Amino acid sequence: MFDVAVIGRGPAAVSAAVTLKIREKDILLIGEKPSEKVAKAHKIKNYPGLFDISGQELGDAFEEHLNRLDIKPVSDSIVTVYAMGNSFSLQAKSGEVYSAKSVIVATGVVNEKSIDGEKELLGRGVSYCVTCDAQLHKGKAVAVMAYNDVPEDETELLKKLCTEVYFLPMGNVSVPQGVTVINDKPLKIVSKDLFNRTLITEGGQFDISCVFIEKDAIAPTALIPGIETDGRHILTDRKMATNIPGLFACGDVAGKPYQYVKAAGEGNVAALSAVEYISGMNSN
Ligand SMILES: Cc1cc2nc3c(=O)[nH]c(=O)nc-3n(C[C@H](O)[C@H](O)[C@H](O)COP(=O)(O)OP(=O)(O)OC[C@H]3O[C@@H](n4cnc5c(N)ncnc54)[C@H](O)[C@@H]3O)c2cc1C
Fold first, then answer.
1. Which residues pair with 103 in a beta bridge?
2. Range with lowest mean pLDDT among 24-33, 215-224, 232-241
3. From the alpha carbon of 267, which atom of ligand 1 is closest?
């Protein structure tokens, strides 16, 4: 059981992790990779003390800071966070399950739109995690909507278990061998009964058991059942607290303006709030 699980690898998450470590908390810092929104920035002119630094240099400095404090990020994504009363259970894409007393969500803002039926059928024919759910669809046809490259072991697993794998590239992604490529825009997912769904695209429809969606960021409402949001953002107060006790949000996912300094500042506030929350738990 970790004291705090910090989800993300951008400025908000790094800042939260650094403050928590300095306050001697046992932390899990988890994110697939360091933030691309940092790495891709050409020149940054508004980060105090680091005029004209490139995104790559700032990202390297974040990694170095973690390294110096002996914080080792776990390269994985969280697909669901469950509030369990006095603790949280976090399901990772790798199939690993983590527990923590408190959670800080610093996942950035979700850009990819969801399609009709995606949110409603999550866990009942829509999945963000091949490793977790592939076995449930053994002997059936499935679809993969890929906004990012899908790891080879995941496509291999689907090809081995499923009768057909329809693969829909949603951008410039690698197309695996041995799948049926559908170069068509998906419109909606409809549930026919408990085990069968139809994926409707602009040009056709496909009978499947599940749609696996591979994307960087998952909408907060899909990631955290019961979370209160305003559009794409998690609602927080000034302590970065959400409607779920012990769960805090910071950075772009907590609202505009989308800025490094604001994300890092909120990460610091969220960390101190999590520390306060845990010490309240311990004194009860
Ligand atoms: C090209 C570009 C240039 C920019 N230039 C500037 C600038 O000059 N100045 C400025 O102030 N701002 C700039 N911004 C905005 C800035 O990038 C963002 O405001 C900032 O990165 C937000 O930080 P964050 O930590 O909230 O989220 P992000 O940086 O988006 O990081 C989110 C992290 O969460 C991880 N993640 C997402 N979902 C999950 C999950 N389910 N499980 C685990 N991890 C997950 C992601 O992989 C990522 O590591 C720029 C943005 C872009 C795109």
1. 5, 247
2. 215-224
3. 25
Residue type, 195: F
| pTM of the predicted structure, to 2 decimals | 0.85
Q: What's the pLDDT score for residue 189?
A: 96
Domains recognised in the chain with CATH numbers: 2-111+217-283 (3.50.50.60), 126-214 (3.50.50.60)
- 62 contacts 38 by C-beta, under 8 angstroms: yes
- The residue-averaged pLDDT of 2-19 equals 98
Handedness of CA 148, 151, 157, 163 (dihedral sign): positive
Average of per-residue pLDDT across 253-264: 94
CB within 8 Å of 264: residues ≥ 6 apart: 11, 12, 14, 15
What pLDDT sits at residue 144?
96
Give the Å distances, CA to CA, from 268 to 44, 140, 284: 21, 47, 25
Kindly give the distance from the C-alpha atom of residue 254 to the centroid of ligand 1, in angstroms, as a whole number: 12
Share of the chain above pLDDT 90, in %: 73
The C-alpha angle 15, 234, 125, rounded to 5 degrees, equals 110
Does the beta carbon of 33 lie inside 6 Å of ligand 1? yes
CB of residue 108 inside a 6 A radius of ligand 1: yes
Q: Which residues contact 28 (CB under 8 A, 6 or more apart)?
A: 2, 4, 5, 6, 74, 90, 98, 100
Residue 174 tokens, joined: 């690698």
How far away, in angstroms, is 74 Cα from ligand 1 center?
18
Cβ neighbours around 256 below 10 Å, total: 10
**Ligand 1 close to Cβ of residue 11 (< 6 A):** yes
